[in-house]
Specification:
about 350 residues, alpha+beta, 8 helices, globular
């Protein structure tokens, strides 16, 4: 009887060990391999979106918000969700030099090689700074990310829970065939009123140039085609004879592409969603994590090539920056835009 008792104990211990091991294998998986939560999947379905449809990201510094937009079968993008940015460093305006702790502004592309599943800041993706516009001004820097951990020294930092969901949405869109997704990084929501509040600031002309891309997306709900020439962003243009523009040279002859406005109902919905939300006139609307030093825990198809900025590469010597030359084409509309 005694011997039989010991045998039973050994067998029971072995079974318990196996259960624990199996349970561990099923319970723990790397964050970058996780599926979307059931709640997020349900929201996608509710909005008529699929996990692998293309995405577009918009960032607003002053409001400390990051938006994810998803494409539907008509090729237009629809607002999916707005996420709080936990922390960003620097002030309003573009990133200039390596080590200035400034978060960038402009139009960027993110492809699969820029996804960082093993970031020391939980999960991350590289914005691709400097792009061809930045390099035209001799701007320097590298490894500018959207990442977790709620700590920023030149990046857009989210809580781990928030960046996990954004990362999975981006991962699934790239896996679904989107070659790269566009990130539009703005100082604030680029309404005419907001821009007027900053008319006396150093970067006013740069922000006016950014507003052209902002307005295009607000009207069409499609990613703007973005080129760089004459040291400025050129939005929605086709170069005559297939000419290739130089970021630092004069723009070749070009024609504006047709603008197909989104149906009025979509614009009304977007207006209602952002009604009453404007950037502050003097302050920066910085996230709470920045002011108090707090880190918050996480809350418990077709391919669309957006634009042609070129890959991020090390900076090369360029002439001393000069004021961007205004485009000779018809000025962009003064519609508001950005969510």
């Amino acid at each position: 009887m005694l011997r039989l008792g010991w045998v039973n104990v050994v067998i029971a211990a072995g079974v318990l060990t196996s259960v624990i091991a199996l349970g561990g294998c099923g319970q723990f998986s790397p964050p970058y391999l996780k599926p979307l939560s059931a709640q997020t999947s349900a929201l996608l379905a509710e909005k008529g979106m699929s996990e692998q449809s293309p995405i577009l990201v918009r960032i607003f510094k002053s409001e400390s918000e990051l938006e994810v937009w998803k494409a539907k079968d008509d090729g237009r993008f629809y607002h999916f969700k707005t996420y709080p940015i936990c922390d960003w460093s620097g002030k309003l305006g573009p990133k200039i030099n390596q080590g200035d702790r400034q978060t960038p502004e402009g139009f960027y592309l993110v492809s699969a090689p820029q996804m960082n599943p093993k970031s020391k800041y939980y999960l991350a993706f590289n914005l691709g700074f400097p792009n061809s516009y930045d390099r035209a001004y001799g701007r320097t820097g590298a490894d500018i990310m959207v990442h977790g951990d709620c700590k920023s020294s030149g990046c857009y930092a989210m809580t781990d829970g928030v960046v996990e969901e954004i990362y999975i949405l981006a991962r699934e869109a790239l896996a679904g065939g989107q070659e790269s997704f566009q990130v539009q990084a703005y100082p604030f929501r680029m309404t005419t009123a907001n821009l007027a509040r900053h008319k006396s600031e150093q970067w006013y002309e740069f922000w006016r140039n950014l507003k052209e891309g902002y307005d295009y997306f607000e009207v069409t709900r499609r990613p703007p085609k973005v080129d760089v020439c004459d040291k400025r962003y050129l939005i929605n243009a086709s170069f005559v004879g297939g000419a290739t523009p130089s970021p630092v040279g004069a723009c070749p002859a070009y024609e504006r592409l047709p603008v197909q406005a989104a149906p009025r109902i979509r614009l009304q919905e977007a207006s209602a969603k952002s009604k009453g939300r404007t950037a502050d006139a003097g302050g920066l609307g910085k996230p709470l994590g920045s002011w108090f030093g707090l880190t918050f825990g996480p809350p418990k198809a077709p391919v669309y090539q957006a634009f042609t900025l070129g890959p991020a590469t090390p900076a090369t010597p360029v002439p001393t920056p000069t004021k961007p030359v205004k485009a000779k084409a018809k000025p962009a509309a003064t519609a508001t835009a950005a969510k």
